[in-house]
Protein 1
Amino acid sequence: MSGVRHRAIWAATLSVFLLGGTARPREKVSMWFWGASPEYRAALQAALVRPFNASQDRYELSIEYRASVDNDVRVAVMGGTGPDLIYTSGPSDVTPLARAGKLAPLDTYAELYGWAPRLLAPVLDSCRQFGHLNCIPLSLEADGMFYSRSLFKERGWAPPTDGAGVERIMRQAKAAGLYPSATGNKSWQPVNENFADIFLNQYVGPTALAELLNGQGSWTSGAMIKAMTELNRWFALGYLGGGDYFSLDFDKSLVLLHDHRAAFIFAPSILFQWAPHYFLPTQDDDLAFAPFPSLTAHAPYPLYDIGVAFTYSINANSTVKDGAASVLNMMLSPQFVLQMAKSWPGYWAPPLKDFPSDDTAEGITKTYLDAMQAITASVAQGQYGFRVGTFFPPATRNVFIRDIEAVWVGEETPEQMLDKAARRFSQEKTLGLVRSVAVPRQH
């Protein structure tokens, strides 16, 4: 009798499994991410992991946090292993992985989920390489200026919209013992490229930059030299960090801004993610964000140079590609974006054409959501520029990180730096590492 009962239970269990019932074990979907703080991990667990796992019974998402995620991804994926969902610090870092065939093309999933109609084309296209969509941009960012509303009121300053206005405020701040801008690259040398972004788009212009990236024009043109020369002038005058550029980071800069010891922070919108540590995230509306002023008469206002802070791709060796794609789709939902904005503003900003709003939002969350709506609206109208870290190929990008620093300390001239950029770009174009870029067309 007991043997019959045992066989019956076994048969029932097998039947449930074969029929796809609850007894079937879930397939694991692995995702690597950088070593975020405990509160940020909790936010991601609440907004992504738990909702995804509750939404279906086939897959189970888990996130592994790694302090050296960029290097870990490169080593693992190139070696044929790694997680199902692959993190990179922007499309330039995707290029070598895509070229090596280590990423699964996402074209079929993009059509299935309707990603192209939902996302801003210039941003999504930064993930199109070697004939395929190889990544999803999950953090649209654009350079601008952060300032304290209360400091501006105290000093009688109005947010500047042109170069003369921003330099006037920086001179007055310097004379009063304040930092003209609290900016630095102590913890992250690629901060340097933020200023290359601003000055290239202001002095060269988005149209000429697009043509340059498409193999037309000269990297040592008069406009390119003017852009780097003017940026060097700003550095020499102490406008970037007041002489402390190499000892400041975003955290120290936000402290200075909060304490009325700095007029500005010039930074990409991703800076919002650090702001809640220094400005109360819901009650405090002192932190403001505005487009960077027009430095030349021909530069439009506002002009947001856009880029992607990080991307996710699917490992070519993944056995759960469908599950990984459904995770990506959840991260592109307005619900996910709004929930993350409450505790982690600035970072999770997929380029949604209809960037979500929240009538109940306050403080930093509201300022951030308003900023992203302004940025996405400008991009939709064709009024945008290009960030170095997203649209330049890897070796060319490095020139605007490392060699620009050499210009600032007098080891290179702008002409020498740009000549090196021209050579690097030529080499990368020959290797097929340069993506074509659409010329912005203002509507």
Protein 2
Amino acid sequence: MIIPPARRTESVKEYFFSIKNREIAKLNAERKARGEEPIINLGIGSPDGTPPRAALRAVADMAVKDGVHGYQSYTGIPELRQAMADWYDRYYGVELDPSSEIQPLTGSKEGILLISMTFLNAGDKVLVPDPGYPTYTSASQMVEAEVIKYDLVAENGWTPDFDALEAMDLRGVKMMWTNFPGMPTGARATRELYEKIADFGRRHKILIVNDNPYSFIRNDEPLSLLAVPGAKKGCLEMNSLSKAHNMAGWRIGMVAGEADYIREILKVKSQMDSGMFKPLQYAAIEALKQGPEWFDKLNDEYRRRAVVAGEIMDVLGAEYDPDSAGLFVFGKLPTSILVNEGITPGEELSETLLHEAGVFITPGFIFGHNGNNYIRISLCAPVPVLEKALERVIRWRRNG
């Protein structure tokens, strides 16, 4: 390079799964040359199911029409915003003004950076859960904010310890990230929890941003932070079609909240893209119309998968919550596991399974210090694939 990169990039590394997927591709090429089956990847949470048929028909029908391939409105077509508002009303009991309180996103991951760019100045402080989605930290760092981790631990049900939060030095804290059902923990929200979170933010003048893409997965009572009376005044919520509708690669999400917040986010977003492909918007409308039977069928499959993932955890001697929600099973490793200096137990086991058993399981350290002794299994693989992974782990355990 003839110039150095911006200093803000020094605080972040390439995304873990970007690095790991490249490594797995290299290992698979070597395995193929040896006549071996490929690695079973139980890492990232990318749903493998098919989106709603109505969504597939909509995108196919619209894509062949004239006049749909140009730039689109930065706010999305009115029909999409109305569909998003109707979805929030039907499933969460939250009333949103589709003209001013919803902003479609190119996936909620985009929203994390957009919101950070919109509301954080260099030096502002951000409360980030540990363990939690790594992008909360990296997005904060890229806008030169200061990350303040708050602990989530199993003993507290993987929910915030409000006594500990109140005891922290909150001067300069401007924003707080929350996520339930939690990734990677699978901890569910309750109405009482959301009331406490909204109250905490209101009293301390901290903007709460709730990342809510897992609320329908292995969870019969989806909840929204915005259902708390008055929450829209101090809270934003992101949501997504990626998990609940098997549309991860389509990159369709949303952020909802009071109109003043949405207007500020739009100012930034309108500088970064030129609207969502119109056929995708019509597909999203159809997906959002799905009734409870869609989620029942989806969760029947994920619950079958979770049983096998639990069996893998059992073979590895890991403790996990069989009643957790979301797309993952999160397991604590026995303290008897020995590791090399500087490597966490989860990382040690993950690397061993990858190279010796041909199974990739995510090490918990990537989600924060409180994940060091944990591993995470994605449920985004069919039961037969999970059963094959179980067989490989059993074989590895016997040979070990």
Protein 3
Amino acid sequence: MSNGSVARTMNSHSQHAEHHDPAAGKIGMWLFLFTEVLLFGTLFIVFAVYLQKYRFDFREASSHLDKLIGAANTLILLTSSLTMALSIGALERARKSLAQGMLVITIVCALAFLVIKSFEWSAKFSHDIYPKSEAMLLKPVGEQVFYGLYFTMTGLHALHVIIGAAAILIAMVFVQKERTRADRITFLHNTGLYWHLVDLVWIFLFPLFYLIG
């Protein structure tokens, strides 16, 4: 094969490797987020139905949740949404170090949320308050339903926080290697969209579980 043919082949491979379709990436992400909205939307509807059926029991169970902890986690996630948005804005201005710093703060917020949530769950387990426990089975049916939804929905949300934090770590690696940069920022944009959805879900979960009592 001639040197010219080799050069053309290498150039072709390079162009293929550099193929980037931000529109397709955004559409795919929005479709994925739509399925997430359907998932949590269905759970919110289930909660609303049982709230109407067991209003008194739901209020009684909610009164035993720590509102201060719930409020602290809300503030933490709102802060993380801000730092996520700031990281995207920084990278759009080609300020790589600032973008990385904001992503680090976002991950710290995610970890803080999970740590606080783990303490809250541990307190419930230490008091034998979890689905199918002896203490739980002695409670009214409505309170059993409330705590079942509480552990299911907050647990599912915590899983999404973990997935989001992992995506942010990947984004940090991509930014460091400049696979994600000012002119190629789709991955960070999509990661931000996912993270904002995670935060939005918690904004609904907080009043549903912690404030109805």
